[in-house]
TrEMBL record:
Gene3D superfamilies: Aldolase class I. InterPro entries: Aldolase_TIM, NADH_flavin_oxidoreductase, OxRdtase_FMN_N. Coiled coil: none annotated. It comes from Jeotgalicoccus coquinae. Keywords: Flavoprotein, Oxidoreductase. The keyword Oxidoreductase applies. Pfam families: Oxidored_FMN. Its EC number is 1.3.5.4. This is Fumarate reductase flavoprotein subunit. The keyword Flavoprotein applies. GO terms for molecular function: FMN binding; oxidoreductase activity. SUPFAM superfamilies: FMN-linked oxidoreductases. Residues 5-336 form the NADH:flavin oxidoreductase/NADH oxidase N-terminal domain.
Amino acid sequence: MTKNLFDKVQLSSGQTFENRLVMAPMTTQCSFHDGSVTDELVQYYTRRAGGPAAVIVESTFIDNYGRAFEGALGADSDDKIPGLTKLAEGIKDKGSKAIIQLYHAGRMGTPELNKGRQPISASNVAALRDNAVVPRTLEVEEIEEMIQLFADAAARAIKAGFDGVELHGANTYLLQQFFSPHSNRRDDEWGGSRENRLRFPRQVTEKVRQTAEEMGKTDFIIGYRFSPEELEEPGITFEDTMYLLNHLADYSIDYFHFSINNWQRTSIIDTTDEQLLLEKYLDNANDKLKKIPIMGAGGIKSVEDAEEAIAAGFDLMSVGKAHLINPDFVDCLKNNELPKSLLTEGDDEKLIIPAPLWNILGFLKEKK
Ligand SMILES: Cc1cc2nc3c(=O)[nH]c(=O)nc-3n(C[C@H](O)[C@H](O)[C@H](O)COP(=O)(O)O)c2cc1C
């Protein structure tokens, strides 16, 4: 059956996406210093809601010491719930599902961002980047507390009225750090074998689902974002990723979200391999996984791009930068209008872009 961009998509939790296009999570760095919601943030998201089936709110830290950015958004304490409620309501009132992405930076954090604290991770191995700090290895009790922190943040999202959360298992943050053989060198039940490295993402997912059920929110959406491969040695291979996803599929995940900068991405490890990662995924998905919608990402600028990605096999597509430069992107596609960039001088009011994102827009402007 041919898939249409404006088909409804049924999720396993019972909720429905009104179409196949979603606003991708994009960090805006415009929260208050404590991570609570600003009016600027509410305006930015509300302006872009309505067209996409769901708006995935940017990476949101679950622990006061788990930030990866200045101005990061947080769901780490109950006093953030009123602000998060405004955000969820703003998105839902326009007609999109409100989903919030939860993360802990782990070794990608720095003491400067986290009140002087040394970052933590699965093991004390620094990330391969300039000036990376060697993290402290989490004790077993701390791992159990960390799982609870993810669940507590999800509970706050529920109280604030969000329809779901996206667990940020990508972009080298803590969930990925536990699965990665580079950052996880443990020899206890939380590391070593692939089965043990799976334990943390698996238990976080399980606990979040259990928490939603205990709160009576049985239709709570849980998405999971993953980075398909790592360049580190040892690092996550695509085969490892299929192992991860085939197992996470047991925990009623509503969608899996590729974290890639272009939906047509091929392997970054074997650059001679021309097969799309998407095709590898479809070839290797078990029966449970095949029932879960997959969300692609990267490079959607027109209706043709989106249709091509859906025809290639994605069920949903997240759209990032096109939403920055055109807040009505999905409506334009729906109305058969060309999604023009509104990126011209003096567009601040039309675009409603938080100040830190102007740097990125400047970059996009140069590329036009
Ligand atoms: C400014 C900016 C911030 C981003 N922040 C996040 C983030 O918080 N979480 C995440 O998973 N991806 C993040 N991304 C990646 C996007 O979700 C998306 O996958 C990427 O931009 C490719 O899609 P696009 O070509 O449609 O922009 C960010 C991208 C941009 C441009």
